[in-house]
Amino acid sequence: MSRRVLHDGGAMLRLPPFRYFAPRSLDEALRILSDHGSEAQIVAGGTDLYPKMKRRQIEPRVLVSVRRIPELSRIVWATHGGVTLGAGVTLARVLACEDLAIAYPALARACAVIAHPPIRSMGTIGGNLCIDTRCTYYDQTFFWREALGFCLKKGGAICPVAPGGTRCWAVSSSDGAPVMIALGAVLHLIGPHGERTIAAEEFYRDDGIQYLAKAPEEVLVEVTLPREDGWKSTYWKLRRRGAIDFPVLGVAVAVRMESGRCRDARIVLGAVGSCPKRIREAENILEGNRLEPDVIEGAAHAVSRAIRPLDNADFLHLYRKRMASVFTQRALRELTDPPPR
Amino acid sequence: MAFEIIGKPLPKIDALPKCTGETRYADDLQLPRMLYAKILRSPHAHARIRRIEVSRARALPGVHAVLTGCDLPTRFGILPVSQDEEALCVEKVRFVGDPVAAVAATDEWIAEEALRLIEVEYEPLPALLTLEEALRESSVRIHDYGDGPNIHKMVSLEFGDVEEGFAQADYVREDIFFYAGSTHLPLEQHAAVAHYGPDGKLTLWSSTQTPHYVHRALAKVLGLPPSHIRVIATPVGGGFGGKSEPFSHEIVVAKLAMLTGRPVKITLTREEVFYVHRGRHPVLMWIRTGVRRDGTITAMHVRSFLDGGAYGSYGVATTYYTGALQTVTYKIPRYKFEGVRVFTNKPPCGPKRGHGTPQPRFALEVHLDKIAEDLGLDPVEMRRRQIVEAPSLTVNWLRISSCGLRACIDRVVEASGFREKFRRLPFGQGVGFACSAYLSGAGLPIYWNDMPHSGVHIKIDRGGGVTVFCGSTDIGQGSDSILAYIVAEVLGILPQDIRVVTADTDLTPVDLGSYSSRVTVMTGNAAVEAAEKLRRLLFRAAAERLDVPEEQLMARARRIFDRADPQRGLDFAEAAQLAEARFGTLGAVGSYKPPQSPRRYKGAGVGPSPSYSYSACVVQVDVDPETGFVRVEKVWIAHDVGRAINPRLVEGQIHGSVYMGLGEALMEEQTFRSRLGLHKAPSMLDYKSPTPLEMPEVECFLIEAEDPNGPFGAKEAGQGPLLPIPPAVANAVYDAVGVRIDELPITPEKVLRGLNDKARGGSGRVGPKSIPSLAWPEPIRVEPPPEWRDVPTRSS
């Protein structure tokens, strides 16, 4: 029935043909992935992948769904604090979990501002962390990219954002990524050669094409968040509208205070480059100090100085750079002096 | 007089099928043996087509036909004066997305593959992508017709001697504004299905607002007798002006159906809808107004520069509309308008909700706000004191038959607390005020003729069922429901007793279409006429049976009865049977043609209307001075609709208009890659239109200044309420943070730029600084109506 509707139904931009596997175990998934090599692609919620396939940005011949793998949908709290989230846990489920919101407010905030409710019901935390980089020259249809001349990331030889260079400047557009780094999360991967763990910070690479330190045949299984341990966190997102839009600037901040002074700080910027960027210069300004207005301002300026967004996302890039400072100040003020409302 | 149906917030007659998903839109249609069509589009903004090779595409299994421009060489276009489009380009392409070839295949995958097998050799030509470029580079010609190199249309009209008016002014102010282009963004993409029968007759189902004009274009381009063509407009999933002319894809599927003998369907992708466009023209405007010290206008001079895109579309009308309606809100004793529409290598612009009037309305209302401030006047009172009278003629001979603007102003000013808030709210918060007017249907048809603009045919069956036939097209605004309400009111039955058959050129009398806010007024008047004819027959038959004088009878609640003795009566069905026995088969027609314009002059075709609606609004904003974000807190809007046939539908139209106006004020903009002319954001993700989260609370007030030309006094509601929103937002932003953003959309970047400029000692204004210098033609000078012979004199 559903097949017939799909075939005879409305006319639209069509998906390219592909084979679809829905393995019920990790072993099976890994086997299918290694059988099909570079032709295969993992799919979880599919909210980003399918539109990209329709636009022929990605044309896998084989899709391996991880939705039916039990290990990927667990939320497990450790006895002494900390939690492990299966990569297939939906964003809506993260939001529904009050304990997560209490322990890791930045995570709840980030999940709450991803896309819109239907996408959060399908989209997963793992999918968000692995989401393809975005660019106004790349996230277009085949027709459009052909009219422009194909770019470095797909089928071409030059990057229209910086035509002189040799790299791709597509933008890391995950709301979850900067937050996971700020929270000190660790990711668990399983591949044909076994399991490994990697710090969230090490998971991303400053390259619009090879943006993950993950082999295509590796599966992101789960994410472990460390014990709350006095850390307070938040996430601020810049986008034109209150829903739907990807971030064009994300500011994840986590601080740990001790006797009125900042003991540790992590400030991670999303969507201003090809990978999330930790701004140590700003963290250094905070650490050891009371978070007085001038200290916050100093850190915010350090953030703004450290980033170099390019003109390949919504809003003028200089505006995004300026907002990085404003949003950092607002995030830090929120953590030090929660607003009354 | 109390009404039974009119004025009640009844549900739409098609509400349930729409809510349950039963409504069949064009893309839902499935016919046996149906093929799917796809169109190959130009990747170049401007190029000559050297050669097209389709043999490989034709040879692909599953492909049934391939078309190129030489198969459909006859040009078409919505306006008789701009027949400049080809269903598939023959010699040249003029924008990225211009259609070049088409394929019909057994499924869309094959059709898409076939497109890739078509080889087109192009010779790229220089692309003209801005108004200034098109005016400057006169050696490159996008079209070989028009009023000058790349000038589609140039107009100049002067009503009375403006210089005489400026001479009487105590104060003269000039401003320059820019209003960005935007697109309609209907949820439903354009779709069409064609069927060509062995009888040589063609049927086209299409998501269109104007089946009648599609019918005419099909006959012209396909060379078929009009009597062999049937166009059925399917329920439209949003039009907003974007589906109100014949389109390439409609002609293409019709031709493909004729060639293959099989039904053919096409649905445009969302990206293609952005290319097909016909949306809001980007307009650069210059406005100069002379006023007395008390704000009384003595003269106004307006210049508009429209960036029309690659084809004519409605552009000649749009050009006139940027100058026509300034005069219908405030008394303007001397008025001059100069307008020019320029071709550029971008998707063609056309009519979008408000058609050519939101842009000058934005300019005018912000300009007046500045004048009031310059003179230390209350911006509300300054406008309120010089509202047009009704009845009256404007200086450009538009007949005002009713005007509820004063009541509109009073309601929103009072409800919003404008006087307490204006210039008094803390930094960052502000209120803005603006008024507007719009027409209830164009006074003249698109092609010159003496026939009615709308026809209604009603038949009554023996069971008391009533069927209403009308060529009008329900695009979601509720025009089918309006027909049912009006006929039910006149015949004394209920809307659910009525079947409405619309938008079918074989079955229904002509209605020109759902554009220019004409439908309620024109179909409504035609429906009243037809229904009253039938009521007379029913009353005559009932009067004989009941032995009551006809004039004493009344029709209500499915009965016809003696007004003096309501027990004495007949069921509606009984009366229908008596009338059929007495007079034969029961049917009647009604038709409507707008009143003639009081004065003819070249250019007088645009502006006249049976009536004008009025709106006033107050917008309250919260501007974040650190980010430049503008949050609209609340909108108070009053709309003079003459009479609300159904207040719920009127409010729906107002909410929709507010939403669309806010989008244009704050974020929507058609932007293109320089040199290439590629649309920067042809998707619903990247083209920024507000979400429900951006939508503020809207408080609506319906003002009912009954109009003598409207059915039950009704006027339009579908477009007018958009108009005051953008200027009110701009005025509110200025009230909040003291910067004038004279260029829509008011983006966060622009607000910050204004604030920075101000912090550095500048004026804080963001907007265009100059207009191109042009050799305007000598104006057509029109003597104003007698009441405007004198100009108010300068204050002593």
Layout of SSEs?
The complex is a heterodimer of chains A (341) and B (796).
Chain A: H1 2-8, E1 19-21, H2 26-36, E2 40-43, H3 49-54, E3 62-65, E4 75-77, E5 83-86, H4 91-96, H5 98-103, H6 105-112, H7 117-122, H8 125-129, H9 142-148, H10 176-182, E6 186-191, E7 194-199, H11 200-203, E8 219-225, E9 231-238, E10 249-258, E11 261-270, E12 277-278, H12 280-286, H13 293-306, H14 317-336
Parallel strand pairs in A: 1-3, 2-3
Antiparallel strand pairs in A: 4-5, 5-8, 6-7, 6-8, 9-10, 10-11, 11-12
Helix pairs in contact in A: 12-13, 13-14
Chain B: H1 15-20, E1 35-41, E2 47-53, H2 55-59, E3 63-68, E4 92-93, E5 99-105, H3 108-117, E6 119-124, H4 131-136, E7 151-159, H5 162-167, E8 171-179, E9 191-196, E10 202-206, H6 211-222, E11 229-233, H7 248-260, E12 264-267, H8 270-276, E13 283-291, E14 297-309, H9 315-324, E15 335-343, H10 358-375, H11 379-384, E16 392-393, E17 399-400, H12 405-416, H13 418-421, E18 429-439, E19 454-460, E20 466-470, H14 479-491, E21 498-502, H15 519-546, E22 553-556, E23 559-562, E24 569-571, H16 572-583, E25 587-592, E26 612-623, E27 630-640, H17 647-666, E28 697-703, H18 725-737, E29 743-744, H19 748-759, E30 780-782
Parallel strand pairs in B: 1-12, 7-30, 8-29, 10-11, 14-15, 20-21, 27-28
Antiparallel strand pairs in B: 1-5, 2-4, 2-6, 3-5, 7-15, 8-13, 9-10, 9-12, 13-14, 16-17, 18-26, 19-20, 19-25, 22-23, 23-24, 26-27
Helix pairs in contact in B: 6-7, 10-18, 14-15, 15-16, 17-18
Structural write-up:
The complex is a heterodimer of chains A (341) and B (796). Chain A has helices at residues 2-8, 26-36, 49-54, 91-96, 98-103, 105-112, 117-122, 125-129, 142-148, 176-182, 200-203, 280-286, 293-306, 317-336, and strands spanning 19-21, 40-43, 62-65, 75-77, 83-86, 186-191, 194-199, 219-225, 231-238, 249-258, 261-270, 277-278. Mean pLDDT of chain A is 94; it is low at 1-9. Chain A is 33% helix and 20% strand. Chain A is α+β, with helices and mostly antiparallel strands. Chain B has 796 residues and is of the alpha+beta class. Chain B has 19 helices and 30 strands. In chain B, strands 3-5-1-12-9-10-11 form a seven-stranded mixed β-sheet, sandwiched between helices. In chain B, helix 6 (211-222) packs across helix 7, helix 10 packs parallel to helix 18 and helix 14 runs parallel beside helix 15 (519-546). The longest helix of chain B has 28 residues, at 519-546. The mean pLDDT of chain B is 97. Classes of the chains: A alpha+beta (341), B alpha+beta (796). The interface between A and B is large, with 31 and 41 residues.
